[in-house]
Amino acid sequence: MADFQIEREVVIDAPVEVVWRTITEPEQIRQWFADRVELELEPGGRGLMGFEDRALPLVVETVEPPTRFSFRWNHPAGEEPAAGNSTLVEFTLVGEGERTRLRVVEGGLELLAWPVGDKERFADEHRGGWAMFMDRLARLLAERPGE
């Protein structure tokens, strides 16, 4: 059976509170992730992550400052995101002194009614994407000492 779970973990040279702001404030998210960001930071809040070629609407699932944040996206237009029609992106932050262990997991792909080949391509693309974006986030915060 194919592994559709997408996971990435990095240790960032910044305190948890700084990392939290960087992954939850639209002006901060634009510096490392999406070109266009709209985000209502509350459970059930709506948002959008815009990239070069597309914009993905999202719905916030969990907001537990400063340790947990999640949202659903990749759902069909006109449908409310739920298990079975979207993927769930979960960020977990753990303080380690003045550093933060940040883990992102994108799951739920196995529940989508997509052909297996499409799921495999999506998982491969998003594994590469999350690796790139998390590394970019770590570099960004390493360049901002004392925040």
Q: Which of globular, elongated, flat, extended, rod-shaped describes the shape?
A: globular
Beta-strand residue fraction: 25-35%
What's the CATH superfamily of the domain at 6-25 and 66-142, by name? START domain
Q: Give the radius of gyration.
A: 15 Å
Biggest β-sheet, characterized? 7 strands, antiparallel
Task: Kindly identify the CATH topology of the domain at 6-25 and 66-142.
Answer: Alpha-D-Glucose-1,6-Bisphosphate, Chain A, domain 4
Q: In total, how many beta strands?
A: 7
Largest sheet, order of strands side by side?
Answer: 1-7-6-5-4-3-2
- Helix percent reads 25-40%
Give the SSE string: EHHEEEEEEH
Structural class of the secondary elements? alpha+beta
Q: On the 0-100 scale, what is the average pLDDT?
A: 92
Q: Characteristics of this structure?
A:
147 residues, alpha+beta, Alpha-D-Glucose-1,6-Bisphosphate, Chain A, domain 4, 7 strands, globular
Please characterize this protein's 3D structure:
The N and C termini lie far apart (44 Å). A hairpin with a 4-residue loop joins strand 3 and strand 4. This protein has a domain of 97 residues: START domain (Alpha-D-Glucose-1,6-Bisphosphate, Chain A, domain 4, 2-Layer Sandwich), CATH 3.30.530. The model has no long low-confidence stretch (mean pLDDT 92). 22% of the residues are buried. It is an alpha+beta fold and 147 residues long. It has a 7-stranded antiparallel beta sheet. It is globular and about 45 Å long. The chain has 3 helices and 7 strands.
